[in-house]
Amino acid sequence: MIIDKIPPQPTITSDRFDLRPVRRSDAGLIELYCADERVARMTRIIPHPLPPGATDAFVKMAMTPDTDEQVWVIDGSQRDHAEVMGLITLEAMDRQQSEIGYWVAPAFWNTGIASEAVRTLIAANPQNARQIYAEVFQDNPGSARVLTNCGFDYLGDAEAFSVAREATVPTWTYVLKMDR
Asked: 12-129 sits in which CATH class?
């Protein structure tokens, strides 16, 4: 149960892109990227193959203002990049804690987009979190580097179910204490 109300979702600007709320017009590119097995396998919730209607349901959920999870599109269109380069989410938890999640389209891997998106969202701290948690699959060391490069500390090993893999997968869990 969330104790505090989540503030309205802002658009947040970085040097290379904007983090902005999801729009209906994003559905096509989100579907294109989420249908890529390489993206789906590194998430808990994206199925592979992507079933009909899954993207529309996700977009509808992301546009709902009274949800515990806020979703931003990594949008580079104002700076001559792609309109949708990936997504980043922040899910409100209790005790002023949030959980961050993200994926970047394969065309933008190894370009620093994920690190910049995480740093940008942390700097804005739109949910006024005191601690932000994250988890990554252990076979995704690139995402682990994103977190450690952004100041997250390793907490320990765990497991999470991946819908795309239809299996429980070992994870690394991280925390960022915002009151440093």
From this structure: alpha beta
